[in-house]
Design a protein that fits this description.
Layout: E1 2-7, E2 13-17, H1 22-32, E3 38-42, H2 48-59, E4 63-67, E5 70-74, H3 85-88, H4 96-105, E6 107-111, H5 124-132, E7 136-140, E8 143-147, E9 155-157, H6 163-173, E10 179-183, H7 189-200, E11 204-206, E12 212-216, E13 225-227, H8 232-244, E14 248-252, H9 260-269, E15 272-275, E16 279-283, E17 293-295, H10 306-313, E18 319-324, H11 334-339, E19 343-347, E20 350-354, E21 363-365, H12 369-381, E22 385-389, H13 391-395, H14 401-407, E23 411-417, E24 423-426
Parallel strand pairs: 2-14, 3-13, 9-10, 17-18, 21-22
Antiparallel strand pairs: 1-22, 1-23, 3-5, 4-5, 6-8, 7-8, 10-12, 11-12, 14-16, 15-16, 18-20, 19-20, 23-24
Helix pairs in contact: 1-2, 1-4, 1-7, 4-6, 5-6, 6-7, 8-10, 8-12, 10-12
Bound molecules: uridine-diphosphate-N-acetylglucosamine (UD1).
Length: 428
Amino acid sequence: MEKLIIKGGKPLQGTVSVSGAKNSAVALIPAALLADGPVVIENLPHIQDVGIYAELLKEMGADVLYEDDWMEIDGRPLNPVQMPNGKVKKLRASYYLWGALLGKFGEARVGMPGGCDLGPRPVDLHIKGFQALGAKVENQNGMLVLKAKKLKGARIYLDLVSVGATINIMLAATRAEGTTIIENAAREPEIVDVATLLNNMGANIKGAGTDVIRIKGVDKLSGCRHTIIPDRIEAGTYMIAAAATRGDVTLENVIPKHLESVTAKLREIGVVVEEADDTIRVVGQEKYRAVDVKTSPYPGFPTDLQQPITVLLTQAKGTSILTDNIYSARFRHVDELRRMGASIKVEGRSAVVDGGARLHGTKVVASDLRAGAALIVAGLVANGLTELEGLEHIDRGYENLVGKLTSLGAEVLRKVTRDTGRNETNTR
Ligand code: UD1
């Protein structure tokens, strides 16, 4: 078993470079399968979800070369084989194989996805979209079986704004006959990133980044090179950590526009945030104000940062209310934060935080990826040692976390506890 040991109480100081976006990477990799030639994806983050995706593609017969921060994917030798449930369950974004394989072969057999447990995460909108394009969809004991004689463009209104459904429909519609119009589409930057890759491959997609996306089907897609956008959630996590520890951190390789809602909220709390072309500097302050936070689809405040910003609000004066409008049950970090001295209660889909807490280190467990991020921020703020378990969740989404935090002056190490009972420590 592995643990993260954090000695808290030191302000983060220095410069950190933000990696490529996880949520783009896990969509771009399956999107590359649609091309009749090799696609090179650059600025890939070194995280577990990317590694698992590379393995999945290899098992399916694709040629995959994965080196440092780039991957070359050639989907030509691919078979639309039945996927083992095991590996697709390891990541949520394996659902993009539905759209990519349906678009490429007119059929797909892929197990239901896994991912963080944030309460119910239905996929009805994905299915509704595939059906509208002419696919028959059946759930055969946890295996989604999709088949279409010919995919045909359609007008699809999404009842809820969904990142996954928007991208999946885009993938399936790229090679469909005629035009597909997605209404009430999600506007996340990762969607624009996927549309950019597909257009570079020869697709005809307009409107990505707005709530109406038009996809004119094309017969053929070819290989290309693509560089992933910076990870706004990783960036936001470091911004919050810098503020919470009352540090002074400059983030490099960011698109400040993608972080507008986070920057605005931090300023409302009293944090100093300075933006330049592709950098953001966060300067922590002694006193912070309580604020309310409501998550909503982009450009609103991201649900993925709701858990980390909760920790910052434990350091503010007054009562803050955080409402998660995307995932009603995304509060499994709260019990652990309470064990560290935070005063938070959950009421329905809101967490009520009484600020001014003195956090102290203790043993805590991450239940999901961003809960893990929140507990790391808490550990950095807390007095004494925090021992964090559940690192498998954090490894899914944060590249070189220990290395980056250490370079900012944090005292963090990863401890491997072997079954022999011997302890071995290392950092990475
Ligand atoms: C993506 C992100 C995740 C982020 C989330 C919301 C990836 C790999 N993951 O997840 O990090 O937290 O967006 O920004 O990109 N919904 C339905 N039916 C559906 C699909 C979604 O009811 O068919 C609901 C969900 O339960 C949720 C809301 O719609 O309440 C938004 O979910 P969605 O945007 O689809 O999230 P993901 O794409 O799974």
